[in-house]
């Protein structure tokens, strides 16, 4: 699962969107995965139900969430989407989020060993939330993904498979 390839193949970067609340923000982040055939529509419901039961466990840092659910909740293939919001939304725990990177992983192993290192590499870039929110097009986002490839988190990771 390669972050850059997933964005390109799924046409799953959506910038400058508006959401009324956290549920709509999650919907906006899952729609590209549904449209690309990576997940079934029930995947959205699974994320909402999980959030209502366990809280927004997928807020990984201030301003950024990685909404996802279990593989059996409608994941058909590995994929990512990235959505930026013009105004942040507030999640049930009171945290504000303006960047959502939705993850569809077919297994827990893909989630932990391949997806998470790439996400850490991208989001450890300086001022990444602001840079993503200000990104005006897919090329700007892809340049940030490219910049993240020098991260030590990606050493030894085979991102071509």
Automatic annotation (TrEMBL):
Residues 6-148 form the PTS EIIA type-2 domain. It comes from the Bacteria. GO terms for cellular component: cytoplasm. It is found in: Cytoplasm. Keywords: Cytoplasm, Kinase, Phosphoprotein, Phosphotransferase system, Transferase, Transport. Gene3D superfamilies: Mannitol-specific EII, Chain A. It holds the Pfam family PTS_EIIA_2. GO terms for biological process: phosphoenolpyruvate-dependent sugar phosphotransferase system. GO terms for molecular function: kinase activity. The phosphoenolpyruvate-dependent sugar phosphotransferase system (sugar PTS), a major carbohydrate active transport system, catalyzes the phosphorylation of incoming sugar substrates concomitantly with their translocation across the cell membrane. The enzyme II UlaABC PTS system is involved in ascorbate transport. This is Ascorbate-specific PTS system EIIA component. It comes from Streptococcus ferus. The gene is ulaC_2.
């Amino acid at each position: 699962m390669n972050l850059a390839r997933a964005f390109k193949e799924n046409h799953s970067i959506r910038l400058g969107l508006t959401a009324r609340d956290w549920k709509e923000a999650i919907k906006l982040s899952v729609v590209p995965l549904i449209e690309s055939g990576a997940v079934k529509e029930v995947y959205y419901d699974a994320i909402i139900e999980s959030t209502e039961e366990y809280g927004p466990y997928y807020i990984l840092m201030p301003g950024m969430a990685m909404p996802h659910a279990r593989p059996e909740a409608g994941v058909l293939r590995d994929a990512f989407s990235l959505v930026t919001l013009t105004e942040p939304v507030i999640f049930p725990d009171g945290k504000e989020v303006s960047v959502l990177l939705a993850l569809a992983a077919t297994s827990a192993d893909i989630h932990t060993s391949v997806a998470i290192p790439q996400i850490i590499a991208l989001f450890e870039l300086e001022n990444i939330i602001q840079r993503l929110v200000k990104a005006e097009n897919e090329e700007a986002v892809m340049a940030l993904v490219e910049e993240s490839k020098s991260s030590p988190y990606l050493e030894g990771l085979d991102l071509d498979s």
